[in-house]
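Subject: design request, 126 residues
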């Protein structure tokens, strides 16, 4: 069982930045894809960004492209999501997810992920 823990959420003003981290306990990221999703009340959980740990390939949603950067930190066994130029519409609970993969693919669908964290709240004030 992979236990994922998100951190780094908080309150920030429009145009500000935050960096989220996803750490895995009891598991070393290796043959994994790790993704970030977000959800607001009454809406579906939506894809934000993902990275293939082995190959370094990445994928972003349209809203995240150019503002967010996903990266792996092999020394800390974490995946970070650097979020810049934040907007009020980025307000959501952000979830980290992981799955085993032996390909270069970077899954974008919620159902493709096996393990999930509890989420961290990001609030962007206008």
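Subject: RE: design request

Done. Sequence follows.
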């Amino acid at each position: 069982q992979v236990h994922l823990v998100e951190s780094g959420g908080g309150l920030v003003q429009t145009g500000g930045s935050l960096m989220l981290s996803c750490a895995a306990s009891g598991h070393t990221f290796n043959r994994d894809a790790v993704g970030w999703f977000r959800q607001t009340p009454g809406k579906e959980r939506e894809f934000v960004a993902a990275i293939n740990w082995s190959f370094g390939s990445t994928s972003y949603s349209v809203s995240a492209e150019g503002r967010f950067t996903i990266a792996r930190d092999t020394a800390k066994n974490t995946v970070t999501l650097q979020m810049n130029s934040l907007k009020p519409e980025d307000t959501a609970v952000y979830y980290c997810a992981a799955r085993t993969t032996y390909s270069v693919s970077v899954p974008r669908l919620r159902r493709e992920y096996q393990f999930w964290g509890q989420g961290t709240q990001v609030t962007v004030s206008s």
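The two ends are 39 Å apart (CA to CA).
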